[in-house]
Amino acid sequence: MMFSPVHRFRDIERKPEYLHPEKCIPPPRLGSLGTMWFIRDGCGIACAVITWLLVVYADFVVLFVMLIPSRNYIYSVINGIVFNILAFLALASHFRAMLTDPGAVPKGNATKEFIESLQLKPGQVVYKCPKCCSIKPDRAHHCSVCKRCIRKMDHHCPWVNNCVGENNQKYFVLFTMYIALISLHALIMVGFHFLYCFEEDWTECSSFTPPTTVILLILLCFEALLFLIFTSVMFGTQVHSICTDETGIERLKNENPTWERTLNWAGMKAAFGGAFSPNWFNPFSGLSRSPSLGLSGEASGITVRCSEETTSSEEART
Ligand SMILES: [Zn+2]
Ligand SMILES: [Zn+2]
């Protein structure tokens, strides 16, 4: 006997036990850390620590190999200040991207009481995530690393040990931008330093021995070039995602937009939290927005569908 999807969903609708409210226990209260968001993922934590160490290494070479031994005082002071401000902003953006809740949907809220409290119009469809027992808003996806459903999830980035979603995309974009800028700045300084050392005596251009100096500079060159390419591609992709209002997962799945798109400048304003201002570049300024539930509508009867998305967040891992 054939059942049309409508019949099957009607069945689900008649059986509230399908929702397993007894399994949907709210998550345990957080301890003394309060509401701080932090993903306990070994690989992600290791990648985040590597990121900081790479920035510290670059800063060390810039300061102690190139700028401090230089006899051009003004050149050293200006470049030292610019590089350190950019490096500080990169690390601050990294911390904000890592420690900001990317837009997690409350865990275990797929209870009958909650669905009733939503006061859905007849015909609305709500999706339930089978893994975290939550009612999934439109465009939310389950991340297997964060073990949560994330609103407008773009991808899970191990370098910031967090998902990139609605609430922390700004910090992620700033992080890629500042890393690209310090990489470019370091490359330019290495170029000038090599020119200077070729013209002058090699023993005079650094406080380290010439072989050590060359090795430290070449390693910095590799690091800066690699990260300049990686972060500028990521920055471009993110800005493109924001301007087309399509997340990385939606692009991968080639989804037809069911949402009303916020394009170009309006998309940038939405992602960066308001009209253009210097705060767009400030990783310390927050985003003021009230999260919408964003549930989708369809014809006849409230329907709860169980969505299966085991692969999407895996595919989107970079
Ligand atoms: Zn989920
Ligand atoms: Zn995640």
From TrEMBL:
The keyword Calcium is assigned to this record: no
Keyword annotations: Acyltransferase, Membrane, Transferase, Transmembrane, Transmembrane helix
Membrane disposition: Multi-pass membrane protein
GO cellular component: a single term: Golgi apparatus
Family (UniProt): Belongs to the DHHC palmitoyltransferase family.
Matching Pfam families: DHHC
Record comment regarding domains: The DHHC domain is required for palmitoyltransferase activity.
Main location: membrane
One biological process term in Gene Ontology: positive regulation of TORC1 signaling
Chain segments annotated as transmembrane: 43-67, 73-92, 171-194, 214-235
The protein's enzyme class: transferase
Catalyses which reaction(s): L-cysteinyl-[protein] + hexadecanoyl-CoA = S-hexadecanoyl-L-cysteinyl-[protein] + CoA
Locations listed in the record: Membrane
Top-level taxon of origin: Eukaryota
Assigned EC number: 2.3.1.225
Protein name: Palmitoyltransferase
PROSITE patterns xrefs: DHHC (PS50216)
One Gene Ontology term of the molecular function aspect: protein-cysteine S-palmitoyltransferase activity
InterPro entries in alphabetical order: Palmitoyltrfase_DHHC (IPR001594), PFA4/ZDH16/20/ERF2-like (IPR039859)
Annotated ranges, domain Palmitoyltransferase DHHC: 128-254
